[in-house]
Input
Amino acid sequence: MKPNVLLICTDHWSGKMLGCNEHQHILTPTLNQLAANGTLFNQAYSTCPTCIPARRSIMTGTSPETHGDRIFKEHEKMPKNLITMPQVFRDNGYQAFAVGKLHVYPQRNRIGFDDVISCEEGRHHLGGGLDDFELYLKDRGFAGQELTHAMGNNHYTVRPWHLPEDCHPTNWTTKQMCRMIQRRDRQKPAFWFCSYIAPHPPITPITEYLDMYRNCGVDKPFCGDWAKDFDQLPYALKSRYDKFQTYTAEETRLARMGFYAQCTYIDHQIRLLIGTLDEEGLLDNTIIMFTSDHGDMLGNHNLWSKPPMYEWSSKIPMILVPQASAYDRCPHHNVDERFVVQEDIMPTLLDLCDIKIPESVEGISMIGEGCRDYIYSEHYECDLATRMIRKGDYKLIWYPVGNIFQLFNLRKDPDEMNDISKTDTENLEDIKKILADELYGSDMKWLKDGLLIGEPDKKYIPGTSRNLAGQRGWR
Output
């Protein structure tokens, strides 16, 4: 029988936040072992570091230009002309099931899966009704209480989880995925998508996991010289301060503790997925991949959340463990330094299953010899727009409003502390040419005679956040 596939996706998990990637404070023992059991792709990025566009790329194997979203189009359906990964698996004899967050529209759209057991962060404004997690809480006698911890879905305030542990969305998602594996049709291979909503805020870890980091401690955020003077920031970064408040040192420490705690809880819960596969006799014939839609700045450079193009936001984890018979194609104890993106997930998994890759797919199989010279990443089309090129040791970030460029040598400066755009003009100009060739659509107004001209800077006028960045209430 063809191999099974378990694709595990998280939300807001930076590629920098792995013990196997030399992070000295976060506890990720399970993921460290998975990396040892397969290949860690150490230079993986999101081509649009925000939830919906990134997930469209994962599910279609295409770039934002092709699937049509580099903004965050909450009310837009998956393009009909693009076949989705679960549909390709089903067309080739697989059963395909998802548990957790799809973040599609309409919310109950299965996008090719046989069935979806959903946990969608209570997005009632999209008209999807109660998701399956909310229905579970209703059965448990906690109807409408999933968000009464009062922590915001886009804020970094912290408190321990307020309901029994089996009512925590991470715990619930794991249990439902384990049951889905157990309830499979044993005569067919399976594609399983386990999609956790954490560590995305609200930051409400299980108490015991928050206590782990009270004992272990966390690292402090860092801040580059270019980020210390607010008045010198690009307009797009200044505008983020309307949504994300300035936290005190103690609030920041607690935010990182809680965030790391949510990561470690997922890490430990993944052990139950692996244990279920093992007890069902499926582990050796199952491909396991771990990734995320994007990362989170977590206070570094005085920034929070996504979608800034700095490493903690744009870089994603990418771990691939092949079926036991395919280590010749994907070695264990291996670190691969090639540039990879979310568009590569679909062709990689299909390749390992010997399934023909659809012509619509633009990604490159990670288990082949193919590689890309650089990565292009983009977000927004308005005055908050940002564009990025990652090539060789360098990263170029461009803010069209103000026509501001930043250049970092990531080999010498992995935390992007020093902007060298004013001193390394040779590399700056070379990479700007690459960036200019990637522009399309509304971006063309920022280009003249092949040169990036952007548009005049804007004066930043502080705004308000009267709804506390989307705070939810009693349901």
The mean pLDDT is 96. The CA atoms of residues 107 and 215 lie 40 Å apart. The radius of gyration is 21 Å. The longest helix spans residues 249-279.
